[in-house]
Amino acid sequence: MEIRTDFLVIGSGIAGLSFALKAAKLGTVSLVTKREKRESATFYAQGGIASVLSAEDSFEAHVKDTLEAGAGLCHPDIVEMVVKDGPNRIRELMELGASFTKRTVNNNEELDLGKEGGHSKRRIVHAQDMTGREIEEAVLKAVAAEKNITVYENHIAVDLLTHSKFIEKTDEDICWGAYILDKKTGGVHTFLANATILATGGAGKVYLFTSNPDIATGDGVAIAYRAGAHIANMEFIQFHPTCLYHSKAKSFLISEAVRGEGGILRLKDGTPFMANYHPMKDLAPRDIVARAIDFELKKSGADCVYLDITDKDPAFIKTRFPNIYEKCLSFGFDMTKEPIPVVPAAHYTCGGVLANDYGESSIKRLFAIGETACTGLHGANRLASNSLLEALVFANRACLKAAELVAKDAAIPRIPAWQTGGAVNSDEAVIISQNWDEVRRFMWNYVGIARSNKRLDRAHRRIENLRAEINEYYWNFTVTSDLLELRNIATVAELIIRCAMLRKESRGLHYNIDYPETDDKNWKRDTII
């Protein structure tokens, strides 16, 4: 089946939904999402959105905090643009119906702004500790009311349709849409569009332990790379310092806001340790905190450290963190009375598809927004709660540029339908699960919080062999969602490894024990593949 649309949006998190909502005023939108439309990293986001909305704060302070967290690799012009546009985007969400937590001061109601690691001021707009859910549901409701938007749930992108592959070789390639697998029927459809927007989120599932939902398999980065797009800074994988440590918790995230409200990290014997690593102690940037915990665990052999907020009033804890409180209680931990066991887990992909200030990739008519993109905002380490902000700002800017493409009404070339060739159904699903597990384990052990040349070499040899096996499997058997996700995490794993091998220093989220120092003379630049 062939489907023609003005805008093809792949992904249903805050970036994809926000773009779709704006683009629907300009033309038809096909929004593809590989599970239910609400299933995204946005939905599970706890902390909030960083934005300057207080008289005690300033754009300059937010810019400064972002640049410091980014360890010299943020693009200052992008940081300033995103920070200054933040308040406008927050107001838009509120107009859509998103309800954020407020407080009463001198009989006046105002937003209850939180504070998180790396921030010098209170600027985190939140809906208690379920901010992502509140935003996702508000935007989904608005999307449902738009007649120009067609949502395709349980559909996953296979590959992009480029001019060079299907029409003729060009110096500057052009994207005309994507092949999309309908997971329920097994059919692969041809989606043709004037503008294609990758908003598939991050790649946390490349690692054995992650705070991300199961959908985070780096699909957008992988299909863009296979199409020839430039990819940048994939070595900078952010490990969230505090995920709940419990065999059945499946890496439930304990928001950074807990530390923002006074939570203290302690060893098993109760000793606080963050003062040994950074002047901001427990509110240090995430890379510092994650490495400190990793070092303490390796030194002691313990399984976890503990996050203690028991000195706060229990009523405050239950009101400010109702979701976290209930979740911890379900696993036998009362955070009002005892410290919470926590460990680091892969959380955010700071690199991605290289995009300019309008979200445009190196391939014409192909955009990347949200966690899929590398815009220059995060540099070598993302400042807490800047991710939802980036997604909103770039969804708006990408729509402005994509609107120009639709207005020109280019003739979309004829693209051949998907061909199965001699592929047959596989009766060896165990191969997929085995390879999936192997990738995630060696990425955690060799390309995790601390790396070395030897570990990276081992990881590189393994991923080369695995990718060859997966590629052979891909061409011999009928495509399935599981196979596509395996293919994508293997591609993304290779990109992370290659970028990490190229960077001969330690900076931000990339720490190599063989190059422990930061080298501004040679490496104060993006890693581009």
Summarize the structure.
This protein is of the alpha/beta class.
SSE order and pairing:
Blueprint: E1 2-10, H1 14-23, E2 29-33, H2 41-44, E3 49-50, H3 59-69, H4 76-96, E4 102-105, E5 108-111, E6 124-125, H5 131-144, E7 149-153, E8 155-162, H6 163-166, E9 175-182, E10 188-198, H7 219-227, E11 231-232, E12 237-244, H8 256-260, E13 264-266, H9 286-300, E14 305-308, H10 314-320, H11 322-330, E15 340-349, E16 352-354, E17 366-368, E18 373-374, H12 387-408, H13 429-446, H14 453-476, H15 481-502, H16 520-523
Parallel strand pairs: 1-2, 1-10, 2-7, 10-17, 16-18
Antiparallel strand pairs: 3-6, 4-5, 8-9, 9-10, 11-16, 12-15, 13-14, 14-15
What attributes characterize this protein structure?
529 residues; FAD/NAD(P)-binding domain; Flavocytochrome C3, Chain A, domain 1; Methane Monooxygenase Hydroxylase, Chain G, domain 1; four-stranded antiparallel β-sheet; 18 strands
Describe the protein in words:
This protein is of the alpha/beta class and 529 residues long. It folds into 3 domains: 2-235 and 350-408, FAD/NAD(P)-binding domain; 242-346, Alpha-Beta Complex (Flavocytochrome C3, Chain A, domain 1); 429-523, Up-down Bundle (Methane Monooxygenase Hydroxylase, Chain G, domain 1), CATH 1.20.58.100. 38% of the residues lie in helices and 18% in strands. It is built from 16 helices and 18 strands. It has helices spanning 14-23, 41-44, 59-69, 76-96, 131-144, 163-166, 219-227, 256-260, 286-300, 314-320, 322-330, 387-408, 429-446, 453-476, 481-502, 520-523; strands at residues 2-10, 29-33, 49-50, 102-105, 108-111, 124-125, 149-153, 155-162, 175-182, 188-198, 231-232, 237-244, 264-266, 305-308, 340-349, 352-354, 366-368, 373-374. Strands 1, 2, 7, 8, 9, 10 and 17 form a 7-stranded mixed β-sheet that branches. A 4-stranded antiparallel β-sheet has the order 12-15-14-13, covered by helices on one side. Helix 1 (14-23) packs parallel to helix 5 and helix 4 (76-96) crosses helix 12 (387-408). The longest helix is centred in the last third of the chain and has 24 residues, at 453-476. It starts with a strand and ends in a 6-residue tail after the last helix. 53% of the residues are buried.
